[in-house]
Amino acid sequence: MHDAAGNAVDLSVQLGGLTLKNPVLVASGTFGYGREFAGFFDLGLLGGVMVKGISLEPWEGNPLPRMVETPAGMLNAIGLQNPGVEHYLKHDLPFLRSYDTRIIVNVIGRTVEEYARVVARIEAEDGADAYELNISCPNVKEGGIAFGSDPAMAAQVVAAVRAETERPVIPKLSPNVTSVAAVAAACREAGADAVSLVNTFLAMAIDVDAERPILANGFGGLSGPAIRPIAVRMVWEVYREVDLPIIGMGGIMTARDALEFILAGASAVAVGTANFVNPYAAVEVLRGIEDAVRRRGPLAEMIGRAHRR
Ligand SMILES: Cc1cc2nc3c(=O)[nH]c(=O)nc-3n(C[C@H](O)[C@H](O)[C@H](O)COP(=O)(O)O)c2cc1C
Q1: SS (H, E, C) 215-281
Q2: Is 140 domain-assigned?
Q3: Ligand 1 neighbours (beta carbon < 6 A)
Q4: Does some domain include residue 146?
Q5: Ligand 1 closest atom vs CA 252
Q6: What percent of the chain has pLDDT over 70?
Q7: pTM (2 decimals)?
Q8: Which of 28, 170, 226, 259 has a CB 3.0–4.6 Å from the CB of 72, allowing a cystine?
């Protein structure tokens, strides 16, 4: 990155053991494995891509309808549909590796052992730069949110994966809990290098004419600008209470939104639902952060600065 005079602007960040060239990531499940967006911009501009959740075997996902727009957001109940780890290694990894960006693989499992097996398989092929553990999906009957709602279970998943890899392990925490900091602290004890905050909020919408839930699954996960103030508060809490780097997300549409998360304590940010509205959103957020660093000074000093004012 260069400023108007051609001088380099340092946007690099440290996230546990992971160095990102800039703090802008794209959130899991909103960017596929990158292909659909590669026609819009060079994926190498991003600090990293958090790929759609990957399981040991292919998962079919939930029946339709599984997405609906809501005021300032959307509900989804995709149910973690994905083609499985072997498909990722064969078809998606070579494509992503052709870009100069970090690959953060989002891992899902029905059991603690399944998370560990997915990571072991990817390790064998050198198929990730870091692992984000989805222990917070509200849309599946088994696994998912059950692991992220209980500090002891979250710690078990982290410890099992920790035993398989030296690469950064980043549990993705659920906002559907009373104390997100308690779960983050348990993950730290178990060996996590950073945490992602937040996944979607358990929610639902009713079709008033048909007099039944709109989503076939009944419940779904709420994302988009509607959740941003709650997500910012959770990042603030974890930054204050737990010594772990944070990837902040939840309704980031613009660079100003991303700066809220950074000032609350996030070392990096992920753009999610905004990708559906504007495929250039992540690049625009990056340009805006670059501009802010030029005007306000180093990124490292901006992280958590709202706590010190
Ligand atoms: C359609 C859709 C699919 C998602 N799939 C995943 C997923 O596979 N794994 C995961 O950890 N999070 C998943 N998420 C959650 C997002 O990564 C993100 O945490 C959440 O949507 C909040 O950010 P946002 O408001 O910017 O979208 C999904 C979100 C949406 C909207």
Answers
A1: CCCCCEEEECHHHHHHHHHHHHHHHHHCCCCEEEECCCCCHHHHHHHHHHCCCEEEECCHHHHCCCH
A2: yes
A3: 27-30, 52-53, 76, 78, 80, 106, 134, 172, 199-200, 223-224, 227, 249-252, 272-273
A4: yes
A5: 26
A6: 95
A7: 0.97
A8: 226
How far apart, in whole angstroms, are the C-alpha atoms of residue 206 and residue 218? 9
Assess whether pLDDT exceeds 80 at residue 273.
yes
Q: Would you tell me how many other CB atoms lie within 10 Å of the CB of residue 173?
A: 28
Q: What spacing in Å lies between the alpha carbon of 140 and ligand 1's midpoint? A: 13
| Ligand 1 atom closest to Cα of residue 52 | 8
List the catalytic residue out of 51, 93, 119, 137: 137
Cα 221 to Cα 78, 157, 229, 247, distances in angstroms: 9, 22, 16, 19
Joined tokens for residue 132: 């984000």
Q: Alpha-carbon distance 172 to 28, whole Å?
A: 10
The CA-atom distances, in angstroms, between 234 and each of 66, 180, 287 are 27, 7, 25
pLDDT digits (tens, 9 = 90+) for 93-144: 999 999 999 999 999 999 999 999 999 999 999 999 999 999 987 766 666 6
Q: In this structure, is residue 107 part of a structural domain?
A: yes
* Domain CATH for 166: 3.20.20.70
Domain-located, residue 7 = no
CA-closest residue to ligand 1 atom 26: 272
- In this structure, what token pair is assigned to residue 93? 């990894």
Range of 251's domain?
13-308
Total domains in the fold of the chain = 1
If one counts every other C-beta atom within 10 angstroms of the C-beta of residue 71, the result is 7
